[in-house]
Amino acid sequence: MKFSSRHERKLWLLASLVVLAIVVSLFINRELISFFEDQNIQAIIFVLVMVLIGIALMINAIRTKPTIPEIALWLGIAAVYIMLFLRLGLAERSHLMEYSILAMLVHRALIERRNNGRRITNPAFVAFGISFGIGLLDECIQLFLPHRVFDWYDIVFNGIVVAGALLLLVVFQWIRKRKTSGN
Question: Quick check: is 107 in a domain?
């Protein structure tokens, strides 16, 4: 694929690294999995992830100067994600992070491509197809791994996560457009 800009290339590279992390996680052995099932380890990882997300949000806020409605929306989303993290198991938590980030990176790469004159009719739908397809492939690979189990629930969950992340991006784009157009 010929990239439309260096920024698009960087976004696709980051998305590829997320896919690589997803694939590598399929081959983690049982000892490491049981290590991560320890409640204390999970608590440390949870706090670390929340701190990293908080830093990313602060950097984004400094760069984009969000409006009060955007800040309120971010806080609401953060609350929902925190509650989800508390309710979900380890596998679902990792799917939530992996596929949210993947969908956002793919969407941003497609937006960048469209902004540079390439024809992308609906970046959110294309990003959904690409991200969901990767999730489907991830699950199908597990059919052939002895220590993994194919699960339709995971496919549906990945689809919901991807759709939710993309919906949030579209809502934020809509808010940003209203802000810049003065409505």
Answer: yes
Burial degree of 80 (CB within 10 A; 0-12, 13-18, 19+): exposed
Q: Is residue 160 part of a domain?
A: yes
Number of Cβ within 10 Å of residue 177's Cβ equals: 10
- What pLDDT digit, counting tens, does each position of 20-56 carry? 999 988 887 666 667 777 778 777 877 887 788 778 7
Q: Are 132 and 35 in contact (CB under 8 A)?
A: no
- Residues 128 and 103: beta-carbon distance below 8 Å: yes
Count the domains in the chain. 1
Domain that holds residue 137: 6-23+89-181
Confidence of residue 60 (pLDDT cuts 50, 70, 90): low
Q: Is 21 in contact with 136 (CB distance < 8 Å)?
A: no
CA 113 to each of CA 53, 161, 167: distance values in angstroms, whole numbers, following the listed order: 26, 23, 19
Decide if 38 is inside a domain. no
The Cα 112–Cα 73 span in angstroms is 24
